[in-house]
Amino acid sequence: MKFKYKEYGEALRPVIPVVLKHGKKYFKYEVLVDSGSDYCFFDAEVGEAIGIFKKDSEIKEVFGIGGRISIYYIHPVTLMVGDECLHIKAGFIPNLGGQIVNYGIVGQLDFFERFIVKFDLLQQEVELKRRR
């Protein structure tokens, strides 16, 4: 699968469309393919939209850019990428992108371990090949 980079201000980023599912509910969303992230993270409001509530989740902390510590809630979900269906454990962070970005993040565990990822900035595309 190949996806074109998206423009955010002056930056080009490997942001791709996905669908998050939990039970019978789903949410169309975009995610940054981020090799620097250990886990997959989504905004807590997205989790609430598909029926995930903080009280039902394990609570953890993550240390991010700028020295900020964020609380997140772990919950199993299904992540649809193109025709691929991944059952993952995701972190849901309140106000993930602040007022700046409106996408989630897919990282090393549960994403990069399942796809071979090729970034091509000059062609402005990211390619995903499912590991078999």
Principal-axes geometry comes out as globular
| Total DSSP helices | 2
Helix percent band: under 10%
Outline the low-pLDDT stretches. Answer: none
CATH fold-type name: Cathepsin D, subunit A, domain 1
How far apart, in Å, are the first and last alpha carbons?
15 Å
Order of helices and strands: EEEEEEHEEEEHEE
CATH class label: Mainly Beta
Structural class, by secondary structure, is mainly beta
> What percent of residues are in strands?
over 45%
Backbone CA Rg? 14 Å
Largest sheet data: 7 strands, mixed
Oligomer: single chain
**Count of the domains:** 1
Count of DSSP E strands?
Answer: 12
CATH architecture classification name? Beta Barrel
Mean pLDDT: 90
Q: CATH superfamily, called what? A: Acid Proteases
Task: Write up what this structure looks like.
The protein has 132 residues and is mainly β. The protein has a single domain (2-6, 16-130), classed as Beta Barrel (Cathepsin D, subunit A, domain 1), CATH 2.40.70. The protein contains 2 helices and 12 strands. The chain has helices at 44-49, 108-112; strands spanning 2-4, 6-8, 11-13, 15-22, 25-33, 41-43, 58-63, 69-81, 84-93, 104-106, 115-120, 125-130. The strands form 3 sheets. Strands 4, 5, 6, 7, 8, 9 and 10 form a 7-stranded mixed sheet that branches.
